[in-house]
Amino acid sequence: MEKDLSLGEFIITRLIKASGYSAIVFVTLIFYFLLREGLPTLGEVELGNLFSTRWYPIESYYGILPLISGSLIVTIGAAMVAIPFGVGTAIFIAEIAPRWAREILKPLVELLGGLPSVVLGFLGILVLAPNLRILLDLPTGLTALAGSLLLGAISIPTVVSVAEDALDSVPRSYRDAALALGATRWQTIWRVTLPAARSGVLTAIMLGVGRAIGETMTVMMVTGNAPVLATSLASLFSPVRTMTATIAAEMGEVASGSVHYHTLFFIGMVLFIISLIVNVTASSVVFRQKKRAERVLS
Amino acid sequence: MKKQLFATILLFLMLLSLNACADTPAQAAAKSGDAVYIENKGSDTMVNLALAWAERYQDLRQDVRISVTGGGSGTGIAALLNNTVDLANASRQIKNEEIDKARANGTEPIEFVVARDAIAVIVHPDNPVNALTLEQLSDIYSGKISNWNEVGGEDRPIVRLSRETNSGTHVYFLEVVLRLGQSDNKTLFAQNTLLLPSSEGIIHEVRQNPNAIGYDGLGYVPHDLKVLAVADVNSSVYVRPSIETVNTGTYPIARDLYIYTAGQPTGVVKEYLDWLFSEEAQTIVADLGFVPVDKPHYP
Amino acid sequence: MNRNLVQRLGFGLLSTVAFLTVLPILLILGYIITQGAPAISWEFITAMPYGGMRSGGIWPAIVGTFYLTVGTAIFSVPLGVAAAIYLSEYAADNTLTRIIRLAIINLSGIPSVVYGLFGLGLFVFFLKFGTSILSASLTLSIMTLPVIISTSEEALRAVPQAFRTVSISVGATRWQTIRRIVLPEALPGIITGIILGLNRAAGETAPILFTGAAFFLPRLPGSPFDATMALPYHLFVISTQIPEMPFQIQYGTALVLITFVLTMNMLANFIRSRARARRQW
Lengths: 298, 299, 281
What we know:
The complex is a heterotrimer. By secondary structure, chain A is mainly alpha-helical. Chain A has helices spanning about 5-40, 40-45, 45-50, 65-95, 100-115, 115-135, 145-170, 170-180, 185-195, 200-215, 215-220, 245-250, 260-295, and strands at about 55, 60. Chain A has a single domain (about 40-295), classed as MetI-like fold. Chain A is about 75% helix and about 0% strand. Chain A has a two-stranded antiparallel ribbon. The longest helix of chain A is centred in the C-terminal third of the chain and has 39 residues, at about 260-295. Chain A is globular and about 70 Å long. In chain B, about 35% of the residues lie in helices and about 20% in strands. Chain B is built from eleven helices and twelve strands. Chain C has one domain (about 40-45, about 55-280): MetI-like fold (Orthogonal Bundle). In chain C, strands 1-2 form a two-stranded antiparallel ribbon. In chain C, helix 1 (about 1-35) packs across helix 11, helix 5 packs across helix 6 (about 135-155) and helix 10 runs antiparallel to helix 11. Chains in contact: A-B, A-C, B-C. At the A-C interface, helix 1, helix 4, helix 5, helix 6 and helix 7 of A face helix 1, helix 3, helix 4, helix 5 and helix 6 of C.
């Protein structure tokens, strides 16, 4: 084949290649800036203070444990919503629903994914929180639970679409074989299809959870933002303060270069690392599944 | 279709090249000779006051445009130090570190007291409690008192609402109420105090939650909430916040509201500041539920 | 019989779950539409806010969101599509490519508020762009990049290999093949990806919070170095920051925002399904 090395083509090819690497550049740049602005915290704040249970930066209490626990509890709550509803809906769409129902359900779930998080937070303040307080007889409705319900809703579309893809990619022949052996459709789903799609469904759940940890505006608007250490699931029913909400609420105020500024970047760094772990794990699950599929095929 | 897209991109790039230096808007506009823009940012307590002022002033002076942004006193002062705004609104006095930082940047923050404000303690209208002492308020917010029946109310848990820590109101409330104005007092807010990002958040929660107690600038409090009378330390006289009780000094939780400039104001910024002390501007202060100041308070 | 009962119960359960999942979506939409519709008028869309934003319109927020979206597109579309071309047409299956993919997956998972931090650190302070449309657009661009790259790559890969082979065999260069054959075929898919990515950018608040959003501006932004109002941030502001804000305006703003976002979503779906239906290979 003739190699055309005209200048225009040469430049364009170079540009395309450079763009190809851009994702690496940006991830590195983001991590670099978080480290650059976040790591000084370790020198400025004593570890005993940093890993204590009181967050009150204007008096130099920089304990990030309540914030981490707040993010965790809200995320656990969100997972308890998103896993059954997300996976259930995915199974329904992929395996059970008649064509017309699928045509209605899929775009509707995508709609939920398209709703800006501020809109959900807005309804959370006006509608969800007051009703939660009355319904559950809580001191206040601005609780981790309110955040969990909304974050669950936000992660459902991710869970549904990834899990549905995973179920779809289970070869038709698996189901046919099970049905031919006399299994009902229900047994086929539970014993054959779902186990075969297990790793994909797991990925779906992890990506959904990752989405929930990183969500900001909704939690800031509905969780009450009290930096209390969440120690058990009972904390779902009281106010919490998440890492994301802390950054969003306080970053605007701090003078750049102050201890508080560095600590907020440190929290950002923690968030970045958590999302890194979640995503690397989720994608390695996908890779492993692919490899297994290749093994089966060869 | 392609051409339109191209045109849009071109337009954007033209805008991009239009302004390549990062002056504050007033400086930039002074160069270009167009309408002058004043950038004003800071205290959420003052944001509505600042908006009302800005709207009225722009009616008077068509050649001046004032943008107003909230975010908290610290936000405004930080922006002033970073040279991104002309005026910083603050509901607390500038801190020494902030002054040091300004000097390090080569400017001197100048302070103007433009209004005064009473901080009202608010509860749900159905709450039978009408008055509290400062000590009781301190005990409630520090977590020593957690049920309304300890201060003569119903048997209900107390839900404490506070502004975020970047708010001047928060800092003021900490110093004057929680710590009763004693500089050696290290009392802190109870950890389960809800930190709401805005005044409106507090009002919304108090309006629908009979367990809640909150505080907010008097100018913010709507009529359907109950404002508590407060008794000063060592006093048994309960006083409700109003313009009179603030000016006579009998209401214990009142403070000055400030505007800071980086260096002595000049040009339109100075004209605007002068106007803020006019009768017209101070009438707006009173209309919005704040307390007017009598005369220009130049340093 | 027992097995069939189990199956019927199971199917019943799952359909209930699916129903319960979509029911809130319908309720949310219905609620916002009924509450917000009375606020919508020509004036509401095209007027500046006044009276402490408690009356008037939301025009500057709409314009601001438009600017941010265009700004985001300027940076993210060329970069994202080029990166997708690289991955689908040039990249070899090696460790470097795997690292690029991992980086893209990571970019897509980084919390939006962390993008905000990054934008503040890099664009606002380090590059001294200030709190501006430029800083916010750049921040949003990086955030939308993974969406654009992965959907565009998928669209490019869907173009059959035979197209390329034929083109190259008649003497076209690689770039000519990409530009004349592959890109036009993949265009609907790429556009869908771009719309979905920009849509996400248009609805975001956290990344622009410290990089470009303004509470209230008495004028439209005049240059990319100005801060700007934006619909999602405006909704946040009027629903949490302004006392005695009329509910109508809040719901009206929410309605405008979701109408914008959902229309874009539907447009993307429409382009995608039309392209699928027309596809002859």
